[in-house]
Amino acid sequence: MKEVKIKANKMSQKQWFNFILELNIIKKAWKPYGVDIQLQGSGIKKIINLGTKVNEYNKKDRRRGKKLEQDQGF
Q1: d(CA 72, CA 14)
Q2: Per-residue pLDDT tens over the stretch 2-20
Q3: CA dist., res. 54 & res. 69, Å (int)
Q4: What is the 3-state secondary structure of 6-53?
Q5: Is the Cα torsion angle 25, 26, 30, 31 positive or negative in sign?
Q6: How confident is the model over 48-63, as a mean pLDDT?
């Protein structure tokens, strides 16, 4: 087992969120080659769960929106 520890200074919350999601992409890309990468840290599971959802919020908002009336013309 090999281990790497990363410390990031002066990183905004948005940059940290994107950084974790990119590490998750690397994890998924290396899995078919037999490499098991584990990401550990506070809030990482929550970041990955929020960042990998596919359009769940947009679909709900569109369906609850007001229906448009048909244009009557002039």
Answers
A1: 46
A2: 999 999 999 999 999 999 9
A3: 29
A4: CCCCCCCHHHHHHHHHHHHHHHHHHHHHCCCCCCCCCCHHHHHHHHCC
A5: negative
A6: 69
Torsion of CA 51, 56, 57, 61, to 10 degrees: 170
Q: How many residues does the chain have?
A: 74
How does DSSP classify residue 60? H
Quote the pTM value: 0.69
The one-letter amino acid at 39: L
* 44 burial type by CB count under 10 A (0-12 exposed, 13-18 middle, 19+ buried): middle
Sort residue 2 into left (φ over 0), alpha (ψ -120 to 50) or beta: beta
